[in-house]
From TrEMBL:
<dbReference type="GO" id="GO:0008218">
    <property type="term" value="P:bioluminescence"/>
</dbReference>
<dbReference type="InterPro" id="IPR012675">
    <property type="entry name" value="Beta-grasp_dom_sf"/>
</dbReference>
<dbReference type="Pfam" id="PF00175">
    <property type="entry name" value="NAD_binding_1"/>
</dbReference>
<keyword id="KW-0455">Luminescence</keyword>
<dbReference type="Pfam" id="PF00111">
    <property type="entry name" value="Fer2"/>
</dbReference>
<feature type="domain" description="FAD-binding FR-type">
    <location>
        <begin position="92"/>
        <end position="190"/>
    </location>
</feature>
<keyword id="KW-0560">Oxidoreductase</keyword>
<dbReference type="InterPro" id="IPR039261">
    <property type="entry name" value="FNR_nucleotide-bd"/>
</dbReference>
<dbReference type="InterPro" id="IPR001041">
    <property type="entry name" value="2Fe-2S_ferredoxin-type"/>
</dbReference>
<comment type="similarity">
    <text>Belongs to the Fre/LuxG FAD/NAD(P) flavoprotein oxidoreductase family.</text>
</comment>
<dbReference type="GO" id="GO:0016491">
    <property type="term" value="F:oxidoreductase activity"/>
</dbReference>
<dbReference type="InterPro" id="IPR050415">
    <property type="entry name" value="MRET"/>
</dbReference>
<protein>
    <submittedName>
        <fullName>CDP-6-deoxy-delta-3,4-glucoseen reductase</fullName>
    </submittedName>
</protein>
<dbReference type="InterPro" id="IPR017927">
    <property type="entry name" value="FAD-bd_FR_type"/>
</dbReference>
<feature type="domain" description="2Fe-2S ferredoxin-type">
    <location>
        <begin position="1"/>
        <end position="85"/>
    </location>
</feature>
<dbReference type="InterPro" id="IPR017938">
    <property type="entry name" value="Riboflavin_synthase-like_b-brl"/>
</dbReference>
<dbReference type="InterPro" id="IPR001433">
    <property type="entry name" value="OxRdtase_FAD/NAD-bd"/>
</dbReference>
Length: 323
């Protein structure tokens, strides 16, 4: 039987006579539970539609609270079950972090380094992002530039060309504490892929790629990595903290591309054109792209037209700004 789990829209398959909790565990879900006999109520969920079998041959129908450790589906059903995580999904946590560094690094970009509290470390995947909270303002999203194995330190690259991001920097400098929620984002690497990587970043999208590159290098990823970093003018190129050391990596190919400066002596043009010039068979690569929705979708269309299967590209834009 198919069991749909809300509010996340997750799905699992339960066998005849199998409890919902057992089915979730078997398929790799992280589900809240304790006693497994219906007494502790930790695994409680609300049945939205369908029927389930309870102990003593009782049945439950829509609107009833059930305990998934003893409930067996009798037909396809749906539950509202808080706290369950899909395989590989990490729990979102709220943390108050110490502001360790807040330094301009060129191109109106600030490098911010935060120290998470001691104790249970924040778990995140390379390429994910966090939400930074301020009093009286909407949370602001920033890619985590540090690699997951860097302990308690989190790094952000914040471009301050609008009042919101300038307000973030002012707030951090004044309060020395950053309240965050993390992790978020699906354009990430829970595990290292078997294929070579093409990483395409516009502006401070480099922060997301820094996390991915650092993780790959630390874990001995042997496949080629092509990193394309694009800006409009050379003055937008900020001091990427690891750029110089990356040049020593034998499997990492670095490309800086400037689009709107005719006198730029290095590579000019747009990012997807540079990728197509360098790589003949795009189907052999995994792509991760970071930038504005317009930039990401233009890159997707151009690379698909050049032979990249659409499902080979990851970008957070696909989730927060679907086309």
């Amino acid at each position: 039987m198919r069991v749909t789990l809300e509010p996340g829209g997750l799905n699992l398959q339960a066998e005849q006579g199998e409890t919902i909790l057992d089915a979730a565990r078997r398929q790799g879900f992280d589900a809240p539970s304790s006693c497994r006999n219906g007494n502790c109520h930790v695994c409680a969920a609300v049945l939205l539609h369908g029927r389930v079998q309870l102990p003593d041959n009782r049945e439950a129908g829509p609107g009833e609270e059930i305990f998934t450790c003893v409930a067996e589906p009798l037909e396809d059903c749906a539950l509202h079950w808080e706290g369950i995580l899909a395989p590989g999904q990490l729990p979102v946590r709220k943390l108050a972090c110490q502001v360790v560094e807040c330094t301009p690094i060129g191109g109106d970009v600030w490098r911010v380094r935060l120290r998470t509290p001691a104790g249970k470390p924040l778990r995140y995947y390379a390429g994910q992002y966090l939400l930074l909270e301020r009093d009286g303002a909407e949370p602001a999203a920033f890619s985590i530039a540090s690699a997951p194995d860097e302990g308690r330190m989190l790094e952000l690259h914040i471009l301050t060309r609008d009042p919101v991001t300038q307000g973030v920097i002012n707030y951090l400098q004044q309060h020395k504490i950053a309240r965050i929620q993390a992790p978020f984002g699906e354009a990430c690497l829970p595990v290292l892929p078997d294929e070579p990587l093409v990483l395409i970043a516009a502006g401070t999208g480099l922060a997301q790629m820094q996390s991915i590159v650092e993780q790959c290098l630390r874990q001995g990823f042997a496949q080629p990595i092509h990193l394309y970093w694009g800006v409009r003018h050379s003055s937008d190129l900020y001091e990427a903290p690891h750029w110089q050391s990356w040049q020593q990596a034998s499997n990492l190919y670095l490309h800086r591309v400037v689009s709107d400066q005719p006198d730029w002596p290095e590579r000019q043009g747009v990012l997807h054109q540079a990728v197509c010039e360098d790589i003949a068979d795009l189907a052999d690569y995994r792509f991760i792209v970071s930038g504005s929705p317009g930039m990401v979708y233009a890159t997707l269309d151009a690379l698909v037209a050049a032979g990249m299967p659409a499902d080979r590209m990851l970008a957070d834009v696909f989730a927060y700004a679907p086309r």
